[in-house]
Amino acid sequence: MEYDARTGITKEVDMEELRQISTILKSKNGNNSLSVESIEPSKEYMSKSVSKAPNYSLFSSNRVEIGDTSELPYSAVCKIYFSNPSSSTGRGMGSGTLVAKNAVLTSAHCVFDKNNNNAKFENWVACPAYNGAPYRNLESGWSKVYYSSAWKSNHSHEYDWAVCVLEKSLGDVVGAVGATSYETTSEMRNIAVRTFRLP
Fold first, then answer.
1. Residues 152-163: pLDDT tens digits?
2. Is the separation of the CB atoms in 34 and 165 below 8 Å?
């Protein structure tokens, strides 16, 4: 599904159609296109030897806090804020990752309120390279969001994803890590996965 915040229109988007579009780009006239097949990471990311960083289990106690979040891949991790009427504080937060210069991959539950008829969260903002405060005051809302209609039906973890096309190209400053999609989970067997998240 595609929801356009500017027009308020939600429409069904064929995944095969999306796979044929080569990049996520924000053109000069403001139009956006999306590829879920493959998004190349920033040149800065490709030049780094990220694979040499130590591995830690997601559930182990020996995870390491990153002190400097200004360099890739850490700079691509975003703290997400939004208004949440269901919360006692009225605010919610989550995390996401810049997969293209103007696109954040996050969870659908960080965009839509499952406790309020799946309404979109208001005042949604992504802040890349967050480390106690927004990095260089960088932040952006989104203009379009792509998500699975199945998530709104059953809120299953399997479909709990969203790609938010941002109003600003934050990756021009902090970079982006790129993305690849897979047809089946079996294609992902034996692939090493590195996760970065906000505490």
1. 899 999 899 999
2. yes
